[in-house]
Specification:
285 residues; alpha/beta; Rossmann fold; Conserved Hypothetical Protein Ylqf, Chain: A, domain 2; six-stranded mixed sheet; two-stranded antiparallel ribbon; 11 helices; 13% strand; elongated; binds guanosine-5'-triphosphate; binds magnesium ion
Length: 285
Protein backbone atom coordinates (compact mmCIF):
# COMPACT_ATOMS: atom_id res chain seq x y z
CA UNK A 1 0.00 0.00 0.00
CA UNK A 2 1.32 3.43 -0.81
CA UNK A 3 0.35 6.85 0.27
CA UNK A 4 0.18 9.79 -2.13
CA UNK A 5 0.81 12.57 0.34
CA UNK A 6 4.21 11.64 1.75
CA UNK A 7 5.11 14.60 3.90
CA UNK A 8 5.80 14.96 7.57
CA UNK A 9 4.92 18.40 8.79
CA UNK A 10 2.55 18.82 11.68
CA UNK A 11 -1.00 20.01 11.24
CA UNK A 12 -2.60 20.93 14.47
CA UNK A 13 -6.00 19.28 14.57
CA UNK A 14 -7.71 18.47 17.82
CA UNK A 15 -11.27 17.81 18.67
CA UNK A 16 -13.24 16.95 21.72
CA UNK A 17 -14.41 13.39 21.15
CA UNK A 18 -17.24 13.41 23.73
CA UNK A 19 -20.03 13.46 21.16
CA UNK A 20 -18.21 10.76 19.17
CA UNK A 21 -18.17 8.54 22.27
CA UNK A 22 -21.90 9.13 22.70
CA UNK A 23 -22.55 8.27 19.05
CA UNK A 24 -20.52 5.07 19.42
CA UNK A 25 -22.68 4.08 22.38
CA UNK A 26 -25.84 4.70 20.34
CA UNK A 27 -24.54 2.47 17.56
CA UNK A 28 -23.50 -0.31 19.93
CA UNK A 29 -27.04 -0.48 21.32
CA UNK A 30 -28.38 -1.41 17.89
CA UNK A 31 -25.82 -3.93 16.71
CA UNK A 32 -27.85 -6.89 17.92
CA UNK A 33 -30.83 -5.72 15.84
CA UNK A 34 -29.04 -5.59 12.50
CA UNK A 35 -28.10 -8.26 9.95
CA UNK A 36 -25.50 -6.41 7.94
CA UNK A 37 -23.23 -3.41 8.40
CA UNK A 38 -22.74 -1.10 5.44
CA UNK A 39 -19.48 0.69 6.04
CA UNK A 40 -19.65 3.86 3.95
CA UNK A 41 -16.29 5.31 2.99
CA UNK A 42 -15.00 8.00 0.66
CA UNK A 43 -13.71 6.75 -2.71
CA UNK A 44 -11.08 9.53 -2.63
CA UNK A 45 -9.58 8.13 0.58
CA UNK A 46 -10.08 4.37 0.44
CA UNK A 47 -7.71 3.70 3.35
CA UNK A 48 -7.83 6.98 5.21
CA UNK A 49 -11.63 7.21 5.46
CA UNK A 50 -11.76 3.94 7.36
CA UNK A 51 -12.36 4.20 11.10
CA UNK A 52 -10.45 1.16 12.34
CA UNK A 53 -12.29 1.26 15.65
CA UNK A 54 -15.39 0.11 13.73
CA UNK A 55 -13.71 -3.20 12.93
CA UNK A 56 -13.60 -4.02 16.64
CA UNK A 57 -17.20 -2.98 17.22
CA UNK A 58 -18.59 -4.88 14.24
CA UNK A 59 -16.29 -7.91 14.17
CA UNK A 60 -19.20 -10.36 14.60
CA UNK A 61 -21.34 -8.91 11.79
CA UNK A 62 -21.41 -9.36 8.05
CA UNK A 63 -19.91 -6.14 6.71
CA UNK A 64 -19.68 -4.64 3.23
CA UNK A 65 -17.54 -1.69 2.22
CA UNK A 66 -19.20 0.94 0.03
CA UNK A 67 -16.96 3.66 -1.39
CA UNK A 68 -19.15 6.68 -2.06
CA UNK A 69 -18.43 9.89 -4.04
CA UNK A 70 -16.74 7.92 -6.82
CA UNK A 71 -17.58 10.88 -9.08
CA UNK A 72 -14.98 12.92 -7.15
CA UNK A 73 -12.23 10.26 -7.08
CA UNK A 74 -9.37 9.79 -9.57
CA UNK A 75 -10.74 7.28 -12.11
CA UNK A 76 -7.36 5.56 -12.63
CA UNK A 77 -6.90 4.96 -8.92
CA UNK A 78 -10.49 3.74 -8.54
CA UNK A 79 -9.86 1.21 -11.32
CA UNK A 80 -6.79 -0.06 -9.47
CA UNK A 81 -8.80 -0.44 -6.26
CA UNK A 82 -11.56 -2.37 -8.01
CA UNK A 83 -8.95 -4.83 -9.35
CA UNK A 84 -7.26 -5.03 -5.95
CA UNK A 85 -10.54 -5.87 -4.16
CA UNK A 86 -11.47 -8.44 -6.80
CA UNK A 87 -8.07 -10.15 -6.54
CA UNK A 88 -8.32 -10.25 -2.77
CA UNK A 89 -11.95 -11.40 -2.77
CA UNK A 90 -13.17 -8.44 -0.70
CA UNK A 91 -16.85 -7.48 -1.14
CA UNK A 92 -16.86 -3.80 -1.99
CA UNK A 93 -18.82 -1.37 -4.13
CA UNK A 94 -17.96 2.01 -5.64
CA UNK A 95 -20.98 4.30 -5.89
CA UNK A 96 -22.09 7.87 -6.50
CA UNK A 97 -25.10 8.68 -4.34
CA UNK A 98 -25.97 11.84 -6.25
CA UNK A 99 -26.27 10.33 -9.75
CA UNK A 100 -27.16 6.97 -8.10
CA UNK A 101 -24.46 5.14 -10.06
CA UNK A 102 -24.16 1.49 -8.90
CA UNK A 103 -26.79 1.90 -6.17
CA UNK A 104 -28.81 -0.83 -7.90
CA UNK A 105 -25.99 -3.26 -7.01
CA UNK A 106 -26.45 -2.45 -3.32
CA UNK A 107 -30.22 -2.86 -3.59
CA UNK A 108 -29.76 -6.26 -5.23
CA UNK A 109 -27.32 -7.29 -2.52
CA UNK A 110 -29.69 -6.21 0.27
CA UNK A 111 -32.75 -7.73 -1.38
CA UNK A 112 -31.05 -11.11 -1.76
CA UNK A 113 -29.61 -11.05 1.76
CA UNK A 114 -32.59 -12.78 3.35
CA UNK A 115 -32.37 -15.65 0.87
CA UNK A 116 -28.59 -16.00 0.96
CA UNK A 117 -28.27 -15.90 4.72
CA UNK A 118 -31.56 -17.70 5.47
CA UNK A 119 -32.98 -15.18 7.86
CA UNK A 120 -36.75 -15.24 8.32
CA UNK A 121 -37.45 -11.58 8.78
CA UNK A 122 -36.83 -8.34 6.88
CA UNK A 123 -33.18 -7.36 6.31
CA UNK A 124 -31.88 -4.61 8.55
CA UNK A 125 -28.70 -2.81 7.58
CA UNK A 126 -26.87 -0.19 9.58
CA UNK A 127 -24.98 2.48 7.64
CA UNK A 128 -21.87 3.63 9.48
CA UNK A 129 -18.88 5.79 8.62
CA UNK A 130 -16.85 8.85 9.44
CA UNK A 131 -18.61 12.25 9.10
CA UNK A 132 -19.56 13.68 5.68
CA UNK A 133 -18.96 10.53 3.57
CA UNK A 134 -22.58 10.74 2.41
CA UNK A 135 -24.40 8.25 4.65
CA UNK A 136 -27.65 10.23 4.70
CA UNK A 137 -27.49 11.03 0.97
CA UNK A 138 -26.82 7.34 0.20
CA UNK A 139 -29.90 6.30 2.18
CA UNK A 140 -32.09 8.99 0.61
CA UNK A 141 -31.01 7.92 -2.87
CA UNK A 142 -31.71 4.25 -2.13
CA UNK A 143 -35.15 5.07 -0.77
CA UNK A 144 -35.90 7.71 -3.41
CA UNK A 145 -37.13 9.98 -0.62
CA UNK A 146 -35.44 12.72 1.34
CA UNK A 147 -35.91 11.24 4.77
CA UNK A 148 -32.46 11.87 6.14
CA UNK A 149 -30.97 15.35 6.45
CA UNK A 150 -27.73 15.96 4.50
CA UNK A 151 -25.13 18.75 4.19
CA UNK A 152 -21.52 19.17 3.02
CA UNK A 153 -20.04 19.49 6.50
CA UNK A 154 -19.42 16.99 9.29
CA UNK A 155 -21.93 16.30 12.04
CA UNK A 156 -25.21 16.76 10.16
CA UNK A 157 -26.83 13.57 11.45
CA UNK A 158 -27.10 13.73 15.22
CA UNK A 159 -29.15 10.64 16.06
CA UNK A 160 -30.20 7.26 14.73
CA UNK A 161 -33.03 6.81 12.27
CA UNK A 162 -34.58 3.64 10.67
CA UNK A 163 -35.70 4.16 7.09
CA UNK A 164 -37.67 1.67 4.97
CA UNK A 165 -36.32 0.83 1.53
CA UNK A 166 -38.37 -0.83 -1.21
CA UNK A 167 -39.04 -4.49 -0.49
CA UNK A 168 -38.17 -5.94 2.89
CA UNK A 169 -35.11 -3.87 3.65
CA UNK A 170 -34.62 -1.33 6.40
CA UNK A 171 -31.64 1.00 6.74
CA UNK A 172 -30.43 2.73 9.86
CA UNK A 173 -28.75 6.14 9.44
CA UNK A 174 -26.16 6.93 12.12
CA UNK A 175 -24.03 9.96 13.06
CA UNK A 176 -20.53 10.07 11.60
CA UNK A 177 -17.76 8.90 13.94
CA UNK A 178 -14.05 9.68 13.76
CA UNK A 179 -11.45 7.78 15.76
CA UNK A 180 -10.17 9.69 18.83
CA UNK A 181 -6.94 10.64 17.09
CA UNK A 182 -5.35 10.58 13.66
CA UNK A 183 -2.67 7.99 12.99
CA UNK A 184 -0.52 10.46 11.09
CA UNK A 185 -0.46 13.88 9.47
CA UNK A 186 -1.37 12.59 6.01
CA UNK A 187 -4.59 11.10 7.35
CA UNK A 188 -5.41 14.43 8.95
CA UNK A 189 -4.81 16.36 5.71
CA UNK A 190 -6.94 13.98 3.64
CA UNK A 191 -9.82 13.78 6.13
CA UNK A 192 -9.91 17.52 6.66
CA UNK A 193 -9.77 18.14 2.90
CA UNK A 194 -12.74 15.85 2.17
CA UNK A 195 -14.75 17.67 4.85
CA UNK A 196 -14.87 15.01 7.56
CA UNK A 197 -13.36 17.22 10.26
CA UNK A 198 -15.11 20.36 11.50
CA UNK A 199 -13.69 23.61 10.07
CA UNK A 200 -13.82 25.35 13.40
CA UNK A 201 -11.12 23.14 14.95
CA UNK A 202 -8.72 23.54 12.05
CA UNK A 203 -6.12 26.07 11.10
CA UNK A 204 -7.52 26.53 7.61
CA UNK A 205 -4.50 28.42 6.27
CA UNK A 206 -2.17 25.63 7.37
CA UNK A 207 -4.49 22.99 5.96
CA UNK A 208 -4.79 24.80 2.60
CA UNK A 209 -1.00 24.99 2.39
CA UNK A 210 -0.72 21.25 3.06
CA UNK A 211 -3.41 20.49 0.48
CA UNK A 212 -1.57 22.67 -2.06
CA UNK A 213 1.64 20.69 -1.35
CA UNK A 214 -0.23 17.43 -1.94
CA UNK A 215 -1.77 18.71 -5.19
CA UNK A 216 1.58 20.09 -6.42
CA UNK A 217 3.08 16.65 -5.99
CA UNK A 218 0.23 14.48 -7.22
CA UNK A 219 -2.06 16.61 -9.41
CA UNK A 220 0.04 19.57 -10.64
CA UNK A 221 -1.89 20.07 -13.92
CA UNK A 222 -5.25 20.25 -12.16
CA UNK A 223 -3.96 22.80 -9.69
CA UNK A 224 -2.33 24.85 -12.45
CA UNK A 225 -5.44 24.87 -14.62
CA UNK A 226 -7.92 25.68 -11.87
CA UNK A 227 -5.99 28.69 -10.59
CA UNK A 228 -4.30 29.81 -13.84
CA UNK A 229 -0.84 29.34 -12.35
CA UNK A 230 2.55 29.14 -14.00
CA UNK A 231 3.98 25.70 -14.69
CA UNK A 232 4.10 24.08 -11.22
CA UNK A 233 7.76 23.08 -11.73
CA UNK A 234 8.63 26.77 -11.75
CA UNK A 235 7.55 27.26 -8.14
CA UNK A 236 10.10 26.69 -5.41
CA UNK A 237 7.70 26.46 -2.51
CA UNK A 238 4.04 25.77 -1.85
CA UNK A 239 3.62 29.19 -0.25
CA UNK A 240 4.45 30.81 -3.61
CA UNK A 241 1.63 28.83 -5.22
CA UNK A 242 -0.69 29.79 -2.34
CA UNK A 243 0.10 33.47 -2.87
CA UNK A 244 -0.37 33.28 -6.64
CA UNK A 245 -3.79 31.70 -6.11
CA UNK A 246 -4.75 34.62 -3.87
CA UNK A 247 -3.40 37.13 -6.39
CA UNK A 248 -5.05 35.50 -9.40
CA UNK A 249 -8.39 35.48 -7.64
CA UNK A 250 -7.95 39.10 -6.55
CA UNK A 251 -8.12 38.23 -2.85
CA UNK A 252 -6.23 41.27 -1.60
CA UNK A 253 -6.55 43.24 1.59
CA UNK A 254 -6.32 47.02 1.87
CA UNK A 255 -2.69 47.92 1.20
CA UNK A 256 -2.30 45.06 -1.28
CA UNK A 257 -1.48 42.17 1.07
CA UNK A 258 -2.90 38.79 0.16
CA UNK A 259 -6.00 37.72 2.08
CA UNK A 260 -4.60 34.37 3.20
CA UNK A 261 -7.74 33.22 5.00
CA UNK A 262 -10.05 33.94 2.08
CA UNK A 263 -7.63 32.15 -0.24
CA UNK A 264 -7.54 29.13 2.09
CA UNK A 265 -11.32 28.95 2.47
CA UNK A 266 -11.73 29.13 -1.31
CA UNK A 267 -9.19 26.39 -2.04
CA UNK A 268 -10.65 24.12 0.64
CA UNK A 269 -14.26 24.67 -0.45
CA UNK A 270 -13.48 24.17 -4.11
CA UNK A 271 -11.56 21.01 -3.33
CA UNK A 272 -14.35 19.62 -1.14
CA UNK A 273 -16.87 20.23 -3.92
CA UNK A 274 -14.70 18.55 -6.56
CA UNK A 275 -14.09 21.77 -8.50
CA UNK A 276 -10.32 21.23 -8.66
CA UNK A 277 -10.98 17.92 -10.36
CA UNK A 278 -11.02 14.25 -9.50
CA UNK A 279 -8.42 13.46 -6.87
CA UNK A 280 -7.57 10.44 -4.68
CA UNK A 281 -5.39 10.26 -1.58
CA UNK A 282 -4.75 6.50 -1.42
CA UNK A 283 -3.80 4.01 -4.10
CA UNK A 284 -3.39 0.25 -3.75
CA UNK A 285 0.11 0.00 -5.20
N1 LIG B 1 -20.31 14.52 -5.37
C1 LIG B 1 -20.94 13.75 -4.47
N2 LIG B 1 -21.43 14.31 -3.35
C2 LIG B 1 -22.07 13.51 -2.47
C3 LIG B 1 -22.23 12.12 -2.69
N3 LIG B 1 -22.89 11.60 -1.62
C4 LIG B 1 -23.14 12.63 -0.79
N4 LIG B 1 -22.66 13.78 -1.29
C5 LIG B 1 -22.68 15.12 -0.65
O1 LIG B 1 -21.84 15.05 0.48
C6 LIG B 1 -22.34 15.87 1.54
C7 LIG B 1 -22.47 15.05 2.82
O2 LIG B 1 -23.54 14.14 2.70
P1 LIG B 1 -24.33 13.59 3.97
O3 LIG B 1 -25.24 12.51 3.45
O4 LIG B 1 -24.92 14.67 4.77
O5 LIG B 1 -23.12 12.93 4.78
P2 LIG B 1 -23.18 12.08 6.13
O6 LIG B 1 -22.20 10.97 6.00
O7 LIG B 1 -24.58 11.71 6.43
O8 LIG B 1 -22.60 13.15 7.17
P3 LIG B 1 -22.82 13.23 8.80
O9 LIG B 1 -24.27 13.02 9.06
O10 LIG B 1 -22.33 14.59 9.09
O11 LIG B 1 -21.95 12.16 9.37
C8 LIG B 1 -23.67 16.44 1.03
O12 LIG B 1 -23.41 17.74 0.51
C9 LIG B 1 -24.06 15.49 -0.09
O13 LIG B 1 -24.86 16.09 -1.07
C10 LIG B 1 -21.67 11.56 -3.89
O14 LIG B 1 -21.73 10.34 -4.17
N5 LIG B 1 -21.04 12.42 -4.73
MG1 LIG C 1 -25.74 12.16 7.97
Amino acid sequence: MTDNTGNNTTLNIQWYPGHMAKATRLIKEDIKNVDVIIKLLDARAVLKSENKDFNKIFSSKKTINVYNKMDLADENITKKWITYFKENDITSFFVDSISKKNLNLILNYLNSFKENFRTNRETRAMVVGIPNVGKSQFINSLTKKSNARTGNKPGVTMSKQWIKVKGEVYLLDTPGILPPKFENIDDAIALASIGSVKDTILDREELALELIKFLMKNYPKKLQERYKLNNIDEYEQAIDVYEDIGKNRGFLLKGGDIDYLRTAVTVLDEFKNGEIGRVSFDSPR
